[in-house]
Amino acid sequence: MTVKVRFAPSPTGYMHVGNARTALVTWLFARKNQGIFLLRIDDTDAERSKPEYEQAIEDGLNWMGLDWDEKARQKNRDERYQEAIQKLKDDGRLYPCYETAEELALKRKTQLSRGKPPVYDRGALSLNDEQIKAYEDQGRKAHWRFKMLHDPIEWNDMVRGNVQFQGSDISDPVLIREDGSPLYHICSVIDDVDYKITHVVRGEDHVSNTAAHIQMFEALGAKPPEFAHMTLLADMDGGKLSKRLGGKSLKELREEEGLEPMALISLLAKLGSSDPIDALTDIQPAIDQFDFSKFSRNTPKFDSDELIRLNAKILQQTSYADIKDRLEELGLGDIDESFWNAVHNNLNLLIDLKEWWTVANGPVSPIIEDADYIREAAALLPAAPWDENTWSSWTTQIKEKTGRKGKELFLPLRQAITGMDHGPEMPVLLPLIGSEKVKDRLAA
Questions:
Q1: Model's pTM, two decimal places?
Q2: Which residues contact 120 (CB under 8 A, 6 or more apart)?
Q3: Do 56 and 124 belong together in one domain?
Q4: Are 91 and 154 members of one domain?
Q5: Which domain holds residue 434?
Q6: How far are the Cα atoms of 129, 147, 152 from residue 91, in angstroms, in the given order?
Q7: For the chain, what is the domain count?
Q8: Cα Rg for the chain, rounded, in angstroms?
Q9: Backbone angles phi, psi at 323, to 5 degrees
Q10: Partner of 60 at 20 to 30 A CA spacing, among 54, 122, 352, 373?
Q11: 35 CA to centre of own chain
Q12: Among 176, 192, 216, which residue terminates a domain?
């Protein structure tokens, strides 16, 4: 059997970290098994679906290096949906209902007050022709529910293990709106049948939906695919991803934060699994090591600080040749290999490079707390040209003259020259700044 999976985002907003994790895990599974990865745009919501969101989905996947073998859109398949829906109606598995939202809410409230589960009571099945005509004369239009069989539903989930439901415990889901448009559930099932999807990867919030979907597959005469329900990501406090990087879209992470895609992949590929999280510079190890059996049912916490640490490690391993074209895009085309080699170990994000470029080229605001010491140091500055030995020879002379050592010797010099108390090693930074700028800053 050829493995075939799908990533099915809705283009009603920008792709976020949670969507990216589903896409990545699905893609890794496909590539590990030499399978087919389908990008399916679930755009039946015509009012909220936007071309710019679909483009952002593709841009995000391309940024992460996740290619697709096939692409489909739901909006082009209404004729097929209606054909399958008619079969379900003919077979008695879809039935019309006329309750208003207020009436359904009252039913649910009554059931809950009696300690019963809020399962639809199938009142619509007992309507006679006269009652139906009366509703239609009032201007009511039917919505259609899928009639669940009150049988056991069971599957072996690739993450959760054995999952069991009773059909009688699941409320008959609405599949057709009053305006005749089909809902996500039935469109998704029909697509999975037609595109011969073998495995469905999605969040654990869909587990109860899957129970109903299994009966829909069977009602359409199809064998259900296998399922993997991933635990949802939480922030470090156990809540929804709404803080810092976890709540940002891929578009923002790429364009505003300058995040390395492999940093996000390194984190998301292993988050929630038994594998250690390491900084990857190539996606192949993530493919080779992927296995659903490694994922637990514990809620994984998305740590923005860990993402930044991974990003920094990846930048430390990135050569100037590999980054040069991106520097042009950032407007930093003047940066040469010597400058990159001097500062890249001090970058958390690539955009931090702008800060160190300013430190080297100015303007900066020198921090001078001991003017007498800085004047003594300035008087001992070696003559140009400078190289990576200049800092050592200069500070040795200062030490001999002032008796200072350690932090008292070095930190005031760094602060006066760079305006900062941390940064790249001064032996490599000093020649990049140059003798004239160093003299001007010490004179401040």
A1: 0.90
A2: 104, 107, 145, 171, 172
A3: no
A4: yes
A5: 362-443
A6: 19, 10, 20
A7: 3
A8: 31
A9: -110, -10
A10: 352
A11: 22
A12: 176
